[in-house]
Amino acid sequence: MQRRNLLDLDELEAGELRGLLDQAQRFGASPPRRDLLRDIIVVNLFFEPSTRTYTSFAIAEHLVGADVIALPPGSSSLGKGETIADTALTLAAMNVRVIVTRHPESGFPYRLAESFEGHVINAGDGCHAHPTQALLDLLTLRTEFGRVEGLRVALVGDILHSRVARSNILGLQALGAEVLLVGPPTLLPASMERGRVKVLRSLDDVLPHVDAVMLLRIQRERIAAAVLPELDDYARNYRMDARRLELLAPHAIVMHPGPYNRGVELTEEVFDFRGWRYAQQVAHGVSARMAVLDYVVNGLPVSPAPPRPESILV
Ligand code: CP
Question: Could you tell me the CATH number of the domain that includes residue 71?
Answer without folding.
Answer: 3.40.50.1370
